[in-house]
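Progress narrative, work stream C.
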Amino acid sequence: MKYIDRGGEQVYCQPFEAKGVHFYGFLLSADMGVLQTQLCDKYLNDPSGGATKFRPAAPFVLLAFCKLDGLNSNAMPYKDYGWFSEQETAIWVLTVDEQRDTALWAFPYIWVDNPYAMAMGREIYGFPKGLGAFDIPDSPDNADKFSVDILALKTFSPETKGTIERVIQANRVSGSGATSEWTEVGDAGKAILKGLADAAGNEDIWDDLKLAYNTIDNLIHGRVPFVFLKQFRDVADGTNACHQSIVEVTCKMTKFHSGGLLLGEYEVAIEELASHPVVADLGLAGHKITPILSYWNYFDFEIGPGVEIWKAQPGDK
């Protein structure tokens, strides 16, 4: 069936191009058991009834704050419509698709300040995007404070009103400045890979050499594979989904400008919100965490069509 555009359409067609992505990453320790049950099993393995088999790659998550100077569709006629800026906060979790020997990033939480980006991300790919308001520095030279505020429920009760709450913030508590030592995407990939290995400690991040090679090759060449649970509630019975699928798509870095480490020590603070139990869902050590690694990148990327590796059929429960 053909997609029907309407006036005020917010879901343009892929591929999408982003230019001037100011990316700040904070690597946080997490519990492997919780990531298995609360992420891999809940969103990727259980819905398919075991047709897919994912596991966490290592005991960590990546907290990312991003500013995108420009985001547009590269498909006609949308390419000629215009472009949007965007700010974003996301939790990245590296998972392993054991059936394909592939490492992919999953997103248990992600917020943006652009309703077009939210609609396109949710409807096309399955990004679990919500709306937020952000404080993200303009430059790594003054990367001292980051935050995202969202509409949330602090507790669950019939009397609770949704209020704007600061769900996550990252503040530099000592030191200053940033390095600019990465001039190629391979430099960033190797440095981040070292951070992943440090986060894993004595545990092997990958089970075999083939998977390790493919993952390193992706990092060095700027390929970032994603995996999502894409779903929509059924109109007749809201406890059911009218569509449910597991989607994989690869984001390709088209140009790497620069990057490096954020110097000094940071503290990440996560609010306890009933509607957004970030700490419990990820198995984090607490509501205040010192990152293992803090860094920044500046790059362009493109994200195109994905593939459904599993799709629910009529009659599936």
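Work stream C, second folded protein:
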Amino acid sequence: MTTTSRIIPATTLDDVRKPLADAIGMPNAVYTQDTMFELERDEVLGKTWAALGFTSDLPVNGFAKPVDFMGLPLAIMRNRDGEYKVFHNVCSHRGMILLTEETEVEGMVRCPYHSWTYDLNGNLKGTPHIGGVGVHKVEGFACEKHGLREVRSEVWMGMVFINLSGDAKPFDEHIEPLVERWSDFCGKDGWNNLHIAPNGSQMQLEVNCNWKLAIENYCEAYHLPWVHPSLNTYSPLDQHYNLIVNEDMSGQGSYTYNLSDVAGTRLPRFSNWPEDRLRQAEYISLYPNVMLGMQADHFFAIILEPRKKDVTVENLRLFYVTEEACGDAYAACRHSQLEAWKVVFGEDVFAVEGMQAGRQSPGFTGGVFSPVLDGPTHHFHGWVATKYASISNG
């Protein structure tokens, strides 16, 4: 607590949260110091709902996948009934890592050290030789008290979210403002009609930047003419608008999104999407680590996986409207659309990596904001500053 206060004075956090025209950005330390990165896992991402992975990565019931969450060993398990649960990936006996690779679990999850076993609901089921050779049970030791430690989790739109602290507001309340907003486009039932295809649906990109810079860049369209010149021809800057959804989300939208024509695709659209708004699209950062996009013919989600203070992996999934859109008849369209997005997201790499390199300079002290075009980015800075202020006051 005192270390955080010393690195980021309360006056600095107050300055970040000033009105847009008077505010400064978060200081270099939160992008460049290992101690801040470690702190953020538990005190920033850990105090809200952070995305951990995609359910599509666990293809069948009875599947388990280890996940490193900013240095914390976790495991997503899909039990025999198809439910997803998240556990700390350590044996309750001596703290050995249980899973080192994703696997379809035929029987039980077995610790490789002393062979204690767990079912996919985290229950401890076997303790071989615990009472001596050939004695597998011992009086006074209750297996039900020593199962895997579960992490609070929820599934939404094919993503597994976790709340490490266990005290965030219910996930339904957390996501409801976005669901309500985008239901105006896709309809109340449209969310249930989105599907990941077996091909043309995913990509992964590793960038040398702090995870926060990826969010900041995604929030705004200000950089469009110079970083995305091709995109700017069919969705120009003057057709974009800023979005502040609530305290946990911001982003931008376009009135003239036209990727389908540019990519040469004709994919099924949401049946409820208003005809007079077919070219409208919105791109929202769901704090802390998800970037979402909604268009008339597809939806995408990017989960940011912070690996180091200056390394972030972007995991993208494209969701298509109706199962028909995921079939062979639309394979070429999906491929074209994915390739078009690869170009766009690839163009951002030099920008976020350049900002990361710039955070090494003592000549930069957080920067300032455009009072017109940087509102969503400033909103995110304010969100981060509030999280840091809570640490200092805790």
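The chain has a mean pLDDT of 93. No further action is required on this item.
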